[in-house]
Amino acid sequence: MVSTRFTEDAGVEYPIICGAMYPCSNPELVAAAAEGGGLAIMQPVSMTYVHGHDLREGIRFMRTLTDKPIGFNALIEKGSKKYFEKMSGWIDIALEEDIRFFVTSLGKPDWVCDKVHAFGGVVYHDVTTRKWAEKGKDCGVDGLICVNNRAGGHLGPSTPEEMYEELSDMGLPLICAGGVGSEAELNRALEIGYDGVQMGTRFIATTECNTPEDYKDAIVGAGEEDITWTNRLTGVPISVIKSPGFKQENSWLMLKLLSSRYNHTARGVELLLLRRVLALAPREVLQADERVRVQHHSGR
Predict the structure, then answer these.
(1) Exposure pattern of 228-259 as b/e (b: 16+ CB <10 Å)?
(2) pTM for this predicted structure
(3) How far apart are the C-alpha atoms of 243 and 113, rounded to whole Å?
(4) Which of 75, 147, 258, 286 is most buried, most CB within 10 Å of its CB?
């Protein structure tokens, strides 16, 4: 067992986060990763719109599978008033259901901090640069998820080492998000000074994740040379597995959508297409709780 500021904040055994994924964060996966000793983050859009659970019912269902801590992912952009109100209500439900660890993304998290801190919880915020880290700290966040240039999904501009050097003076727990695919990478992140790591793809290739088997096969079969980036989905770099017909740049139509009044619609398309791919993919499909323990102990 490794004790860090993160494990103390989250009340977990291992300094590992099973990151929230759309659409892959089904409740069985979240519960299994939590049961294994890491902190698993539920994704409310996945829970409700993809996997068909009412949010409160879904949380209670996970509680029948594990009594370990579970976190909540709040995407807090204000592009849609209806969505913003829905997310605010979801956060209230999560707090009522005794969730106390929240990860915020894509917005100003001050109002989330106010809600969560009133219940004695903590808020960690996704950041890619010091600019966003400072904004998060000013809003009262308790830790930072440092998304680097080896992350699955959207990429940051910096290496894990550069991000730590850039943010280590802020006095907050830092989580390395990206490029952690073995025990060696986990240990390296802790040696750099990070308080934990966040992984996504490692947990897609598990028996509890109900994503299609051909997607799991693609992850298991991919090597580092198969991973690249594209801006065709959202207008900013995102990591993907190379496939036939792959292109890095957007068409003129998608560029217009992403840079115009249709931007919010384009972001909806992004949510449907987004997949998280780490540069170091798992070599086999395991159970999610085993994935946590194997990651921490054997380097598989």
Answers:
(1) eebbbbbbebbbbbeeeeeeeebeeebeebbe
(2) 0.82
(3) 41
(4) 147
CB 101 within 8 Å of CB 121: yes
Contact between residue 239 and residue 232 where contact means Cβ atoms under 8 Å apart: no
Quick: pLDDT tens for 240-265.
Answer: 777 666 555 555 444 544 454 444 43
Contacts of 95 (CB under 8 A, 6+ apart): 115, 116, 119, 121
The pLDDT assigned to 244 comes to: 67
Domains of the chain (ranges, CATH numbers) = 5-209+283-297 (3.20.20.70), 214-273 (no CATH)
pLDDT in tens, 62-112: 999 999 999 999 999 888 889 999 999 999 999 999 999 999 998 999 999
Question: How far is the C-alpha of 199 from the C-alpha of 204, rounded, in Å?
Answer: 10
Number of residues assigned to the chain: 300
Contacts of 6 (CB under 8 A, 6+ apart): 15, 143, 173, 175, 195, 196
**Average pLDDT value for the chain:** 83
CB 215 within 8 A of CB 204: yes
Asked if 250 and 175 count as a contact pair (C-beta separation under 8 A), the reply is no
What angle in degrees, to the nearest 10, is found between the helix axes of 130-139 and 160-167? 50
Which residues on adjacent β-strands are paired with residue 40?
18, 70
pLDDT of residue 222: 80
pLDDT reported for residue 230: 67
Asked if 205 and 282 count as a contact pair (C-beta separation under 8 A), the reply is yes
What tens digit of pLDDT does each residue of 264-297 get?
A: 433 333 333 333 333 334 556 566 666 565 566 5
The answer to whether the CB of 193 falls within 8 A of the CB of 168 is: yes
